[in-house]
User: Fold this.
Amino acid sequence: MHCEKRKLRREIALAEAEKREPDARQLRERFAKLDAEPRTAKLERRLAELEPRIHPAGAGPRNPDDLPAISRQQREAFYRCD
Assistant:
């Protein structure tokens, strides 16, 4: 779900930059529809709960040995989206 929303944001930005307003409007409507789905809200709430465990507020990782593993997970998640 996160990947799909990221792609839609990118497409909206491109459509606005290229002044394709009808396309941008359609993409915004798709994004709003996706954002309104109960399943999406549930997944985003869960992500909000888990994210502080990965990125502790104000401090680095609790264990410096965890940094390469977290970095690898973030890279894999990024490349899975494209």
Notes: The radius of gyration is 16 Å.
